[in-house]
Design a protein that fits this description.
Blueprint (H helix, E strand, L loop, with lengths): L7 E2 L4 E2 L4 E2 L4 E2 L4 E2 L4 E2 L4 E2 L4 E2 L4 E2 L4 E2 L4 E2 L4 E2 L4 E2 L4 E2 L25 E3 L4 E2 L4 E2 L3 E3 L4 E2 L4 E2 L7 E4 L4 E5 L8 E2 L5 E3 L6 E5 L2 E4 L3
Parallel strand pairs: 1-4, 2-5, 3-6, 4-7, 5-8, 6-9, 7-10, 8-11, 9-12, 10-13, 11-14, 12-15, 13-16, 14-17, 15-18, 16-19, 17-20, 19-21
Antiparallel strand pairs: 21-22, 23-24, 24-25, 25-26
Length: 203
């Protein structure tokens, strides 16, 4: 069993002895954290949330109430998972095989969702694996993501499409005076767009 000093796990949570929980993390009522899951420091797992077998989560992540993070998801540092979000793991789901027998763990290969540093997934959004959500991207509430999302992209809809850009502060960027530049209205940081990708130019 992993040492769990400086970790808060409420009595009603179901946390495997084989899970690794980083210092300062909190796991709240009715949450479930499965075998071999690895949570970084200062993570928060909300009420009724599910973290699947072998899921890897960086430091300072937040998984809100009733979100479902299925293996083999990989979350970088500072990822926000909103209430009732679903990260899927089966490209072609079936309960039974073609011959009518019940599928087992050996009858399919799980695929995961990968989420970059600082990205946010809005309430009730669904990310259909395998997809990668770029660093600092934002997926709007209720969106269904079926293809990769670039860094800093703001995506919405079913299926999700890019509708703008967001900065590291999380607010939508506004167009700068120079073509291809975008400005954060909150802190003045400048970003440059080129060939459908965005990069940060200054601190």
């Amino acid at each position: 069993m992993t040492e769990r000093t400086e970790v808060r796990i409420v009595e009603s949570a179901d946390v495997s002895d084989d899970a690794e929980i980083g210092a300062g993390s909190s796991i709240w009522h009715l949450a479930q954290v499965r075998e071999r899951a690895r949570l970084g420091e200062n993570c928060i797992i909300g009420r009724g949330a599910y973290v699947g077998t072998g899921v890897v989560m960086g430091d300072n992540c937040k998984v809100q109430n009733y979100a479902l993070v299925y293996e083999p998801a990989r979350l970088a540092d500072g990822v926000f998972i909103g209430p009732a979000v679903v990260l899927t793991n089966d490209t072609y789901p079936r309960a039974i095989n073609a011959d009518g027998t019940l599928k087992s763990a050996h009858d399919w290969e799980p695929v995961g969702v990968t989420i970059g540093r600082g990205a946010a997934i809005g309430a009730r959004a669904t990310c259909v694996a395998p997809v990668t959500i770029g660093a600092w991207a934002t997926v709007a509430a209720g969106a269904v993501v079926v293809k990769d999302v670039p860094d800093y992209a703001l995506v919405a809809g079913v299926p999700a499409k890019r509708i703008g850009w967001v900065g590291e502060a999380g607010v939508p960027l506004t167009a700068g005076d120079e073509a291809g530049t975008w400005i954060c209205p909150q802190n003045g940081s400048t970003y440059r767009e080129q060939n459908g990708t965005l990069t940060k130019e200054n601190a």
